[in-house]
Write the structure tokens for this entry.
Amino acid sequence: MAETKEKQTYQAVIGLEFHVHLATKTKMFCGCRVAYGDSPNTHTCPVCLGHPGALPVLNEKAIELGAMAGIALNCEVASHAVFARKNYFYPDLPKGYQISQFDEPICVGGHIDVPTSDGTVRVGITRLHLEEDAAKNVHVGESGRMHGSTGSLVDFNRGGTPLMEIVTEPDIPTPEAARATANQLKSILQAIGVSEADMEKGQLRCDANVSIRNPDGSFGVKTELKNMNSFRFVEKGIAAELSRQQEIIEDGGRIEQATMHYDPATDEVYSLRSKEEAHDYRYFPEPDLLPLELSTEWIEEKKARLPELPAEMKSRFVESYDLSEYDAGVLTADRDLASFYEEVAKSADAKQSANWISGDLRALLNEEGIEISDSKVEPKDMAELISLIENETVSRSAAKAVLAKVFETGDSPSVVVEKEGLAQTGSGELDGVIEGVIADNPDEAERVRDGDKKVVGFLVGQVMKATRGNADGGRARELLMEKLGS
């Protein structure tokens, strides 16, 4: 009898690295404006272009935002931090080095608690350091072809933008937890105002270090996944890379240390370059910048300025508004959505407000791919709609149509109800409609009288059809049962 091979259980080891643009008006070491979408090379100067003799001047606001991010991530803010030169040559780095932080970063040793479907995962933060961003390589035309030649151009507008790098410990157990960690970190950074963290603008970039733990418990060989432009692709890319590594191990192969790229079109990963040897960046302290000396009083003042964090807001929503953990989590994941909800809940039932905002309104936002701040639905509109339902002016099914129309036009719910004729059918009129439905469907009515409750749904459907959905389905059912003596 053939021997059955026991199925091996593999444990994923995942760590994330985030590069985040800080919400400053000017660049890290010069006065050039930070802007997105402007014409190439219109926000540059001798400092950010690396001209000989140009000296950097530290952006105080960037230091403040970096420290606040560290505090929000439960890090220790260093009283002494040093900027260093990271030396390498690349077209997007005009000086031939990047001003960054190495062995003495501004923040170390934090953590965030990440809710996942398997429970809360505590993800350690190894370090948070500050640096300048590189410029942006622009690969021109299809297959890099422009004016009959191939090549790349460089836009130096981004060069020198204040950048914060956040490195997690390899504490993340699954691809789903990696996506949840990224979302949690993004919501924290947006909540405290240190970054807009808009991935489409390149304000937040995420790389992943992925490996499978060896049978003896030691770490396996890791690969680095780069260039993932959404958190959904972070999750899918990590899953694809883990699958690739597992297949290699099961076939008796060896994982090569490499930089990988995930292709969403094929759901596959492929190697960009080998990383068998670490780069020698020849770090040394930046001679043109003094070390940072941050006093205890300065750090405490930044702590005092922190707004309510998402986890704290979620707990408050559960307690103050009697919401479920899930609803509170959905609402507080987006600071603007949370503010919208609180405004609605001032004049409408808190639970109904949560249901409509986290359900129907959020579905409309996702369908259009817009944020609540861009929606035509105002908090007063949402409160008015809930009031119309409670006053039985509109049925719940009709209210969905009303909300969709308000979302489309910006008209108030009352105006939409009047224009579209969506007012709920009154009791007297509903009585007549039900009698008409019973008369038109005698066989089904008789079956209900004989105790067949399955047919009631059909009759209610006929009532809703006759009233164009403007009747209360629950009330229609009650009246039907009364009239049929069942």
